[in-house]
Amino acid sequence: MEEKYAWKTMDYNWPSDEDRDAAIKRGFYNPESMVILGIDRWRDMLFVTVPRWRSGVVSTLNYISLFNTERSPKLEPYPSWDDNSLETEHTLSTVISAYRLQVDHCDRLWVVDNGLENILEKRTEILRPAIVIFDLTRHQLLRRFDLPYEQIKNNMVDTFFANIVVDCSEENCEDAHAYIADAGSFGLIVYSFKKNKSWRIEHNFFHIDPTAGAFSVDDVLFTWTDGVFGVALGHLNEDFSRDVYFHSLTGWKEFIVSNKVLQNENIANNSDLVYTEFRILGDRGPNSYSTTHVFDDSLDVIFFTQVAKHGIACWNIRTPLNEKTVPLIEQDDVALIMPIDISLDNDGFIWVVSNRMPHFIQRKMNFEDFNFRVMVAKASDLIKGTLCDLNGF
User: Burial letters for 220-238: b for 16+ Cβ neighbours within 10 Å, e otherwise?
Assistant: First the structure.
C-alpha cells in the first residue's frame, strides 16, 4: 500500500491563526488530543473522523480534498465549523463525537454520533446518541435520528457504538437500512430509513471470545473486551437480500446472517427464532484480531484489518474460512501500527487508517514521530498472487 497522508499531530484549516491561538489558550484545542479513526471517500473528498475521546478536539467530522498533495494536510470541518463546535448552539446537524461513518450508493453520508465528550477522562453526555445523515450533493443535513434510550445499555456507560454500515442500492435508496455495532454491550442496532425506526438485536455471537482478550500491538500489552465490531455486506441479490458478515474485535471467528433476518423487526424481537438464523463461518486463526472488514463484490474478497499483525488480510468467500485461507497480504511494522478502519471506494481502491491507538490511550504517543497514516492501494493489486486471487491460479 502507498502512503497517501501522514501526521505527527493533526490540525485544522483554521479561519485564521488568531482563532487557532485563542482556541489553544481557552483549552478548546489540543493537538495531542486528536486521533484519526474512521475513513471513507466520496468523489474528491476523503472523510475522516476524530472522536472526542479527550478534551481539545474542535471538530469530529472532517474531510480532506484529494487534490491536496501535502503529506500532512489540515482537516476541514464538515459540514461546517459551527456544526462541530461545542461553543455554539447545537443544531440538528451537530455531531459531537463520530467514530465511524459511511458513504452509501445514493450520495449520502451516514454518521453515528455517540454524543459523548472526553470519554477517556471525564465522560460528559452533550447530546443524545444519533444517526446523522447528510446529502452530499447539496452538503446539507438530510435527517437526524435520535436512538431510543431503551436500545442503549446503562445510559451509554456500557454501550459503545463502534461501527455503522449502510445496506442499500442505487435502485432502492428509500428502503435503506443501517447496522450499528454496539461493541460495548454486544448488540446490533438496525435502523430503517423508510420507517424512520430502529430496533435492537442481541445474540451470543456478538459477544467476545473470553480466551482472546490479551492484545499486543507494537509491544504495548493491554486487554480489550469489545464485542461485535466489524460488519461487511455480501453480494446484493435481485430481491435485495444479501449476506451480512460480522465478527467481534475480541475474537477470531467470523459469522454470517441474512440481511432479511436483521431487517425483519418481528423476527428480531423473537430471540428464540432469530438465534438459529445466525451461522459460524470459521476461525481466522490466532492473533487475527480485526476491527473491521469490507467486501469487494467484483473480486469475491473480504479485506480485514489485522491489528496485532500490523497488516491487512484477505479471504475469498468461495473458499472455506480458516487460518490457511485468510493470508496476510500487507504488513508494515511502521506504517500499519494499529490499522483501525478500512473502506472500499467506487473505483476499487482500498483505504486504510492506522493510528497507534494503544500508545494514544496509554499516553505513550511520541508526537515527534508520524503516528497517523492513510494508506491506499488498488484492491485487485493487493491480492495478486495470493490465495484470494482464484482467477490467478
Answer: beeebebbbbbbbbbebee
Cell 506504517, located at residue:
335
Q: Return the domain boundaries, the chain.
A: 2-392
pLDDT, tens digit only, all 393 positions of the chain = 999 999 999 999 999 999 999 999 999 999 999 999 999 999 999 999 999 999 999 999 999 999 999 999 999 999 999 999 998 899 999 999 999 999 999 999 999 999 999 999 889 999 999 999 999 999 999 999 999 999 999 888 899 999 999 999 999 999 999 999 999 999 999 999 999 999 999 999 999 999 999 999 999 999 889 999 999 999 999 999 999 999 999 999 999 999 999 999 987 777 777 788 999 999 999 999 999 999 999 999 999 999 999 999 999 999 999 999 999 999 999 999 999 999 999 999 999 999 999 999 998 899 999 999 999 999 999 999 999 999 765
**2-392: what fold?**
Neuraminidase (2.120.10)
* AA letter at 73: P
CB-based contacts of 22, cutoff 8 Å, min separation 6: none
* CA nearest neighbour of 301 among 315, 289, 288, 287: 315
CA distance 276 to 322: 22
Nearest of 340, 332, 296, 298 to residue 314 by alpha carbon: 296
Contact 12, 75 (CB under 8 A): yes
Using CB atoms within 10 A of its CB, is residue 343 exposed (0-12), middle (13-18) or buried (19+)?
buried
What is the DSSP annotation of 70-87? -SSPPBEESS-SGGG-SS
Q: Measuring CA to CA, how many Å separate 377 from each of 3, 19, 287?
A: 9, 37, 24
